[in-house]
Design brief:
15 helices, 6-stranded parallel sheet, 9-stranded mixed sheet, 15 strands, 21% strand, binds 6-O-phosphono-beta-D-glucopyranose, alpha/beta
């Protein structure tokens, strides 16, 4: 039985899409598991003027799929309060603190405060400064900050943002979310990699290439305002794909083996930063056009008809670690692709029997999402394919949705699945040169690909061996 948490959670961006789609359902699941129960309150803030009642109705809507029992959901939402908030207005922080103080007493929350910033990043620093100056961090329990991407748009702005946040919070109090680090399969990777034959072969000695695919079938879904200034490289590769790569490369058996968090940072620091020639050869971008009855990107609402924003990117990294010398790490991501799939495909140098009773394979596919599982096959031999589902793989471990897991970990003060400042800096060091080159590229090389395809043809050229992309679909 887990301990019940005592806490006030203040959510900036409570009327936003993330709160609605992910955070309220995640909190509700924590409530159903009694991890938050009697002694918690959530203060939602945003600019709009909502009443507590309206806010609670919105939360009910968001949790519709999770709730069968109306008494349960009513009890849950009764812990939610709403305060209309202008992030620049000092008086609003005073009001926020007064409300928090009174709820602290009402729910006996032991002076613990969790602040969650799920809103436009340009305000993160300002909010942190106000929280400090208006005394919202002067509490008898813990104070923690949960923060969402985008964490800067390059190394310089990420460092600047960090400096502003550090006016109010110390590194150990900051929980930077990359929700991929909370996904079941990523959590399970260390165990998977410790299967004896995988462990033995988990290096350049056993592996000839690694491929990360993060294909999405949806388009930008009314997010042009955000996406136009961002693009696929910053939206998916700087964070999720690099964390997946870091988790795959992080060593199982290094003498200094620290936490998964440290190991990921080490792996990232060992990736070669691509130079201009390598960028030209190994990194390509694309933009979706028509196909599948869908609008091309340039006709999406909020997108200018000369937009150069990439909705697809593919590339290749390589590690300078002696463990991984010469192993290409390919990646690709795109909107409006043929399928939704986040996965890692690995080609081994020789066939292996990784689990007793299974046929030998040299291609291992680790499916992260949807439906985490693994499959194996021999290259070019479809009939050798097997698949092991999550239950069998984990001996019946329960699946936990990423946001639920990460919020619970932050409430417990567990930092292993969050992104450190060092890790964040490493990711921008890798991405900045690519963005800079692309910004200056003339003429621009931005092929279109059909909606519903696996991306532009050009992406096939970056793979130098005969097998091409292991995941072809
Ligand atoms: C987000 C991106 O971080 O991840 C979105 O901003 C993307 O553009 C999403 O759709 C993908 O996450 P998931 O969990 O649905 O694979």
């Amino acid at each position: 039985m887990k301990n019940e948490q005592h806490v006030i959670i203040t959510l900036f961006g409570a009327t936003g899409d993330l709160a609605h789609r992910k955070l309220f359902p995640a909190l509700f699941r924590l409530f159903k598991e009694h991890i938050i129960d009697e002694h918690f309150a959530v203060i939602g803030t945003a600019r709009r003027s909502w009443s507590d009642e309206y806010f609670r109705e919105k939360i009910k809507e968001a949790c519709l799929e999770e709730s069968e029992d109306s008494e349960d959901i009513n009890r849950f939402t009764s812990h939610f309060y709403y305060l209309s908030h202008d992030v620049t207005n000092t008086a609003h922080y005073v009001a926020l603190n007064n409300l928090a103080n009174s709820l602290e007493e009402k729910y006996s929350t032991h002076g613990n405060r969790l602040y969650y910033m799920a809103m436009a990043p340009q305000f993160f620093g300002l909010i942190a400064t106000h929280l400090n100056e208006e005394n919202l961090l002067n509490v008898s329990g813990y104070k923690r900050l949960l923060i969402e991407k985008p964490l800067g748009r390059d190394l310089e702005s990420a460092i600047q943002l960090d400096k502003e946040i550090k006016n109010a919070f110390k590194e150990e109090q900051i929980f930077r979310i990359d929700h991929y680090l909370g996904k079941d399969m990523i959590k399970f990777l260390p165990k998977l990699k410790s299967l004896p034959l995988l462990k033995e072969n988990w290096s350049y000695k056993g592996i000839s290439k690694i491929e990360v695919t993060m294909a999405e079938s949806l388009g930008i879904e009314h997010r042009a305002g955000y996406y136009e200034g961002t693009g696929a490289l910053r939206d998916m590769i700087q964070n999720h794909a690099l964390q997946i790569i870091a988790s795959i490369l992080s060593p199982n058996n290094r003498p200094e083996s620290g936490s998964q968090q440290t190991l990921r940072s080490i792996s990232l620091s060992e990736l070669f930063i691509p130079n201009t020639d390598q960028i030209k050869q190994n990194f390509i971008r694309g933009q979706y056009g028509e196909g599948d009855g869908q609008l091309p990107y340039l006709s999406e609402e909020g997108v200018g008809n000369e937009s150069r924003t990439e909705t697809y990117v593919a590339g290749k990294f390589e590690s300078q670690s002696p463990t991984w010398k010469g192993v290409p790490i390919y990646f690709r991501t795109g909107k409006r692709m043929k399928t939704k799939s986040a996965r890692v495909d690995i080609l081994f140098k020789k066939p292996l029997i990784i689990l007793k009773g299974l046929k030998p394979i040299n291609v291992l596919s680790i499916i992260i999402d949807p439906n985490p599982h693994i499959t194996g096959r021999l290259l070019d031999k479809e009939n050798s394919r097997w698949s092991v589902d999550w239950r069998t793989l984990t001996n019946g471990e329960k699946q936990i949705e990423a946001y639920q897991r990460l919020i619970e970990e932050a409430l417990n003060g567990e930092k292993a699945d969050f992104v450190t400042i060092e890790n964040l800096k490493q990711t921008w060091r890798l991405i900045d040169p690519i963005e800079s080159y692309w910004e200056s590229e003339e003429p621009i090389n931005l092929p279109t690909y059909n909606s519903g395809s696996m991306g532009p043809e050009l992406a096939n050229k970056i793979i130098k061996d005969d097998s091409g992309w292991l995941f072809k679909k």
